[in-house]
Amino acid sequence: MATTGSGRALLRYGSWAMVTGSTAGIGRAFASELAAAGFNVALLARDAGQLQAQCRELASAWDIEAVAIPCDLGKPDYLPTITAATDALPIAFFVNNAGAASYHGRFLERSAQDMEDCLNLNTAVQLRLIQHFATRMAAAHGGAIIQVSSIAGHMTLPFMAEYSASKAYQLTLGEALYYELKDHRIDFLTLSPGATRSRRVSYGMEPTPVVRTALAALGRQPSVIPGWRNKWSAFRHRHLKSRRAAVHSMGAFQRTQLRSD
Ligand SMILES: NC(=O)c1ccc[n+]([C@@H]2O[C@H](COP(=O)([O-])OP(=O)(O)OC[C@H]3O[C@@H](n4cnc5c(N)ncnc54)[C@H](OP(=O)(O)O)[C@@H]3O)[C@@H](O)[C@H]2O)c1
Q1: Which mutation among 46, 79, 191 tests ligand 1's pocket best, with the greatest number of atoms within 8 A of CB?
Q2: For ligand 1, is residue 26 a contact (CB within 6 Å)?
Q3: Which atom of ligand 1 is nearest to the CA of 45?
């Protein structure tokens, strides 16, 4: 197994990592960093062709095993699909990354189905995946889980109401699990990126430094916000403004984004 650089220390968790939403953006950077660190990887997304190409590329670049798991986390059979593909693999590192797409829209114009789909993926499905892999890690005496939330979870975002609420849920859940899962020797980190270049976002930080910030913070703190601008923005919103001022300023900003969509 090839191991490189500072990532080598991550192998203390075990030999297999799993990343959901591995074919683009932040998930793709996690898959690359973990493969470069020497993990065998189980990679999940909907598009089987892209997944297989990614597995071939990482396996050949880093001399590791890479398993493709084509799966739609929005479909009811996601857990049996994942179980069938991973039960024989000692997954010791899990990145809960694939989430619902953010949007700018007026609450009353949103379809109820879209909102339910967003909440289902970002809360119920991700919760179930955490419990599934944490249970296995606890039985194996430890592991690591990274929950990808968002800076949106630290703020209140009008015109992205249920998305930002779902990200706040992930942050609160993740910080609680950071404490609770320590009893099972599981390091749990919630990552709250700001805008990050990805399939759906064309500005912001590059995904690799976002992911490296998370990997460096894992085991040291409950959550991390990558980039000083994002840190400052969250701090100002939470601690330097009244709730009214914070909500009004984000609302005014979000309204300008709505107009430019
Ligand atoms: N980019 C940002 O600015 C930003 C900021 C804060 C937080 N985040 C969070 O970071 C995470 C990743 O976002 P990203 O922008 O990096 O993503 P992205 O570039 O849009 O890529 C999404 C990945 O998830 C997969 N995916 C999407 N829906 C899926 C589903 N229903 N089932 C299985 N796989 C699915 C996609 O592949 P397929 O299409 O083939 O399924 C792809 O691999 C999300 O949780 C997001 O909320 C992103």
Answers
A1: 46
A2: yes
A3: 34
Report percent pLDDT > 90 for the chain: 92
Ligand 1 centre to CA of 107 (Å) is 22
Q: What is the span of the domain harbouring residue 224?
A: 5-260
Query: pLDDT-based confidence at 149, cuts 50/70/90?
Result: very high
210 lines ligand 1 (CB under 6 A): no
Model confidence pLDDT, tens digit, residues 172-231: 999 999 999 999 999 999 999 999 999 989 999 999 999 999 999 999 999 999 999 999
Residue 22 alpha carbon to ligand 1 centre in Å: 8
Domain count along the chain? 1
pLDDT tens-digit series, residues 73-118: 999 999 999 999 999 999 999 999 999 987 789 999 999 999 999 9
Residue 110: CATH number of its domain: 3.40.50.720
- Helix/strand/coil (H, E, C) string of the chain? CCCCHHHHHHHHHCCEEEEECCCCHHHHHHHHHHHHHCCEEEEEECCHHHHHHHHHHHHHHHCCCEEEEECCCCCCCHHHHHHHHHCCCCEEEEEECCCCCCCCCCHHHCCHHHHHHHHHHHHHHHHHHHHHHHHHHHHCCCEEEEEECCHHHHCCCCCCHHHHHHHHHHHHHHHHHHHHHHHHCEEEEEECCCCECCCCCCCCECHHHHHHHHHHHCCCCCEECCCHHHHHHHHHHHHHCCHHHHHHHHHHHHHHHHHHC
C-beta 29 within 6 A of ligand 1: no
The model scores a pTM over 0.90: yes
Rounded distance from Cα 208 to ligand 1 centre (Å): 15
**How many A from CA of 99 to the centre of ligand 1?**
5
